[in-house]
């Protein structure tokens, strides 16, 4: 059926009608007073979302662009960086660092497990000469559905004095990322994740300590030079032509988020996560991430003995529900249920009911009919 598509992937995420409507208006000049008013308003909204007084800069980029900007503006060729790696995105930040000639040391943990803060402690304490300039961490590792312990790792980074650069692409807007309270230097995110918006905007928050590092950082940059964005943000505009319609959408999305309130947003994501995980357990399928490190945005399921791609295919064909597949070596091994952004209890109930039917169609019957739905319903009413 036309227009009944349900996106349950970890980005792009579903977009509310008010945000879609905001996109469909005529563009305005980005040097106009009208644009500056919107710019000022969304900048305030972004600071609210990041729980910070730091600059939050807006780029026309995906989340990777925001992270690349967050790395290259504060470092020089040959600088030593520690990169946390326990999934696809952690690996990507190591690749970016290598592409720019940084001296990369990875702190690894197997896919499906959380990074160990003690590993960071050991690596940072061994660096008595303070040659490590930055630590790059993926907060919610979307490829595996693991939430890393950012607070504990950050405490080690603070004790050392290096900058912390955080990929909060699927944690911001889903779980508290208190930038000022924790002293997070650089935090990158993207519009198509927790923001309830289409893809196209990247966001980077920058602390005073990071701006100090910017003064002497020598990696090449032009379009992603955050100093340019900061300077123009002071005049409520951008250095280059921004996607003005995405700014309209951001304005509408932030208004919705502020009406819901941060605590309610985080509670909703926690509830959706618990409901999804309870349902998967009731269906006797394996969760790929442990309970104590569950991402608030995405749940990865390892349906041992069943081809995860077949489940995805039936979910799409029969119910028009898009689930995400496994990345790299996890392809066919896991499927991932996104519950990030504009997602409500009803969406989870529908997805689990569709999943039950799809599993039966594939001949998997190791659960009582309705067990998954009942477990999800119990978790959302608890
Ligand atoms: C989606 C995502 C990104 C950004 O990916 P883009 O495709 O560049 O927007 C970065 N990190 C994580 C953890 C993500 O989920």
UniProtKB/TrEMBL annotation:
Stated name of the protein: Alanine--glyoxylate aminotransferase family protein
Entry superkingdom: Bacteria
Positions of substrate binding: 336
Annotated Aminotransferase class V domain residues: 27-327
Protein family according to the UniProt entry: Belongs to the class-V pyridoxal-phosphate-dependent aminotransferase family.
Cofactor(s) this protein requires: pyridoxal 5'-phosphate
Biological process according to GO: glycine biosynthetic process, by transamination of glyoxylate
Signal sequence residues: none
Classification lineage: Bacteria, Bacillati, Cyanobacteriota, Cyanophyceae, Acaryochloridales
Keyword NAD: no
Keywords from the UniProt entry: Aminotransferase, Pyridoxal phosphate, Transferase
List of residues that carry N6-(pyridoxal phosphate)lysine: 193
PANTHER family linked to this entry: ALANINE--GLYOXYLATE AMINOTRANSFERASE, AMINOTRANSFERASE CLASS V
UniProt-recorded Gene Ontology molecular function terms: alanine-glyoxylate transaminase activity; L-serine-pyruvate transaminase activity
């Amino acid at each position: 059926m036309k227009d009944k598509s349900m996106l349950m992937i970890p980005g792009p995420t579903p977009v509310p009608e008010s945000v879609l409507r905001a996109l469909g208006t005529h563009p305005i000049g980005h040097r106009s007073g009208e644009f500056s008013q919107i710019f000022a308003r969304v900048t305030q909204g972004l600071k609210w979302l990041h729980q910070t007084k730091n600059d939050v800069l807006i780029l026309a980029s995906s989340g990777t662009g925001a992270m690349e900007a967050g790395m290259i503006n504060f470092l020089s060729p040959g600088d030593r960086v520690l990169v946390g790696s326990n999934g696809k995105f952690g690996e990507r930040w190591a690749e970016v660092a290598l592409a720019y000639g940084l001296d990369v040391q990875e702190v690894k943990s197997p896919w499906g497990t959380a990074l160990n803060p003690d590993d960071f402690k050991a690596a940072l304490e061994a660096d008595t000469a303070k040659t490590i300039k930055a630590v790059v961490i993926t907060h919610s590792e979307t490829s595996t559905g693991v939430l890393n312990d950012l607070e504990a790792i950050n405490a080690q980074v603070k004790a050392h004095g290096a900058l912390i650069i955080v990929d909060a692409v699927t944690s911001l807007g889903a779980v508290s990322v208190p930038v000022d309270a924790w002293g997070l230097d650089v935090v990158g995110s993207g519009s198509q994740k927790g923001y309830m918006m289409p893809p196209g905007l990247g966001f980077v928050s920058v602390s005073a300590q990071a701006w100090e590092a910017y003064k002497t950082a020598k990696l090449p940059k032009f379009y992603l030079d955050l100093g340019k964005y900061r300077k123009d943000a002071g005049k409520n505009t951008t250095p280059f032509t921004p996607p003005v319609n995405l700014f309209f959408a951001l304005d509408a999305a932030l208004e919705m988020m502020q009406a819901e309130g941060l605590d309610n947003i985080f509670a909703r994501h926690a509830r959706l996560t618990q409901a999804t995980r309870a349902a998967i357990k009731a269906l006797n399928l394996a969760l790929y991430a442990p309970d104590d490190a569950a991402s608030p945005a995405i749940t990865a399921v390892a349906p041992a003995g069943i081809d995860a791609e077949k489940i995805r295919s039936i979910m799409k064909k029969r119910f028009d529900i898009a689930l995400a597949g496994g990345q790299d070596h996890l392809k066919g091994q896991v499927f991932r249920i996104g519950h990030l952004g504009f997602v409500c209890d009803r969406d989870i109930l529908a997805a689990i009911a569709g999943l039950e039917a799809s599993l039966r169609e594939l001949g998997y019957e190791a659960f009582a009919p309705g067990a998954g739905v009942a477990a999800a319903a119990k978790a959302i009413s608890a």
